[in-house]
Design brief:
This protein has about 220 residues and is α+β, with helices and mostly antiparallel strands. Among the domains are: about 65-140, Beta-grasp domain (Ubiquitin-like (UB roll), Roll); about 145-215, DNA polymerase, domain 1 (Orthogonal Bundle). It has helices at about 15-50, 85-95, 150-155, 165-175, 185-190, 200-215; strands at about 65-70, 75-80, 110-115, 120, 135. The protein has a five-stranded mixed beta sheet, with helices on both faces. Strand 3 (about 110-115) and strand 4 form a beta hairpin. The radius of gyration is 35 Å and the shape is elongated. Residues about 10-20 and about 30-60 have low confidence and may be disordered.
């Protein structure tokens, strides 16, 4: 029996049934084709568009200023953001990553370097304010082939565990050798109190410092 149209009780003819089926099928196919074309069009445009040439060099930082820094006996002329710290300039611009970024607030000592012979927290200093000053980092006091006595003592006394604070600890310890610090362990601990070791290797660090002091 032919189906009955709900609005028209008269039976639909075979031609009407076929026409409706064909219409719905074609309408659905057209919708799919339209959606596919919408997605494919931008992809095709991208494929046909000429590839942009890669920049030959990184874009300059807006507002960058020239700075001349003396680091480990070498002179570096670089362009830096006026707000860049000595720490970030050492790590990001000069690729001297031995100096570590810990708290970035001058509280942990991981970023300790020497500025004109004195130990400082490099995260608190603007690079633009220290042009032509003598900066020494952990890379400048010894090499794997020829360790500084303090570096050798840290190895000998197991003065490190994870090692993250070690460069700052050693830089402070080397500066301490020229400072008026008492001979006892308590005085050494007080002098190094600005350098935090989260692993708790303090007894070994003090032992390393005292070993070098006794060598003098």
């Amino acid at each position: 029996m032919a189906p009955i149209d709900e609005k028209d009780p008269q039976p639909l003819t075979s031609l009407e049934r076929i026409s409706r089926r064909v219409f719905l099928t074609r309408a659905g196919a057209a919708g799919v084709a339209t959606a596919t074309a919408a997605v494919a069009a931008p992809l095709s445009a991208q494929a046909q568009a000429p590839t942009a040439a890669a920049p030959t060099e990184a874009a300059a930082v807006p507002g960058a200023v020239p700075v001349t820094l003396k680091v480990n006996g070498s002179t570096h002329r670089v362009m830096v953001d006026p707000r860049a710290t000595v720490l970030d300039t050492l790590r990001e611009t000069l690729s001297l990553t031995g100096t570590k970024k810990g708290c970035d607030h001058g509280q942990c000592g991981a970023c300790t370097v020497h500025l004109n012979g004195r130990r400082v927290n490099s995260c608190l200093l603007f690079a633009t304010m220290h042009q032509n000053d003598e900066i020494t980092t952990i890379e400048g006091i010894g090499t794997p082939e020829k360790l500084h006595p303090m570096q050798a003592a840290f190895v000998q006394e197991d003065g490190y565990q994870c090692g993250y604070c070690t460069s700052g600890q050693i830089m402070s310890a080397v500066a301490l050798l020229k400072e008026p610090v008492g001979a006892d362990d308590a005085s050494v601990r007080e002098a190094l109190s600005g350098n935090i070791c989260r692993c708790g290797a303090y007894p070994n660090i003090v032992a390393a410092v005292q070993a070098v002091r006794h060598m003098a």
